[in-house]
Amino acid sequence: MGTIADNIAEIRNNIALARQKSPHPDQDVTLVAVTKMHSAEEIQEVLAAGQTLLGENRVQELLDKYDAVGDAATWHIIGHLQSNKVKYITEKVVMIHSLESESLANELSNRMQALGKTMDCLVQVNIADEESKFGLERDEVLPFIKRVSQLPGIHIKGLMHIAPYFEDPEDVRPIFREMYRLFEELKALELPGVDMEILSMGMSHDYQVAIEEGANMIRVGSSIFAV
Ligand SMILES: *Cc1c(COP(=O)(O)O)cnc(C)c1O
């Protein structure tokens, strides 16, 4: 175990290795450093290591850290977002990974429109885990995207998936593969107003497998902060 900077260097190295086995070896993989439950001091170390793209899954935590860290960081919301919290984050985050309901989409679009802006969004898909409360089922994804992509304040940029936890990350490989297949199918449709560019999947435990199966954005928390 080393410092936060060592951990980030190791993750970047692992990303480069996994990428070579992926469907697009020369495509970049974007690392989102997930800072939930970690202090502003720890986040400063992340930033000092050159990792400025950060993710939070709770609005209140994001707001606290946003104030502590200032504009040195770029933020994504990666977890369930309630419609009544949207107003707090419209000017603080550049992407929402967890778009999964029309009420959220409508509220977000209205707020963004009032600002004269659009928000980049990923649609959260839940293809594997019936237990999980959040995310659209496979068959719901296309009709949902067709509807919400018409909203003027929203720009659909891809899909996000939270995989179920398996002791052996190899066991999640078929699910990542299925997500990639869905992603490619949707991309091929070239839906108007939709840029199917980002597939956000893979966390500390399984990001290498996710990249090998086609993820081009990963969300990593605990591996960064384990020192
Ligand atoms: C916490 C969290 C992560 C990061 O998980 P780690 O296992 O700590 O890497 C990724 N995505 C979401 C949605 C999370 O809530």
Commentary on this structure:
By secondary structure, the chain is α/β, with parallel strands linked by helices. The chain has a single domain, classed as TIM Barrel, CATH 3.20.20.10. Helix content is 41%, strand content 19%. The chain has helices spanning 4-19, 40-48, 59-69, 86-89, 102-115, 138-148, 173-189, 207-212, 222-225; strands at residues 30-34, 53-56, 74-77, 95-99, 119-125, 154-161, 194-200, 217-220. The chain has an eight-stranded parallel sheet. Strand 4, helix 5 (102-115) and strand 5 form a beta-alpha-beta unit. The longest helix has 17 residues, at 173-189. Pyridoxal-5'-phosphate is lined by residues 34, 36, 57, 78-79, 162, 203-205, 219-223.
Keywords:
alpha/beta; 227 residues; 9 helices; TIM Barrel
Please report the total strand number as a whole number: 8
- Rounded to the nearest angstrom, the distance between the terminal CA atoms is 6 Å
SS field, number of helical segments: 9
Strand content: 15-25%
Shape verdict: globular
- Which fold name is given in CATH as the topology? TIM Barrel
| CATH architecture assignment name | Alpha-Beta Barrel
CATH class: Alpha Beta
Q: Class by helix and strand content?
A: alpha/beta
Rg is 17 Å
SSE topology sketch:
Elements: H1 4-19, E1 30-34, H2 40-48, E2 53-56, H3 59-69, E3 74-77, H4 86-89, E4 95-99, H5 102-115, E5 119-125, H6 138-148, E6 154-161, H7 173-189, E7 194-200, H8 207-212, E8 217-220, H9 222-225
Parallel strand pairs: 1-2, 1-8, 2-3, 3-4, 4-5, 5-6, 6-7
Pyridoxal-5'-phosphate is lined by residues 34, 36, 57, 78-79, 162, 203-205, 219-223.
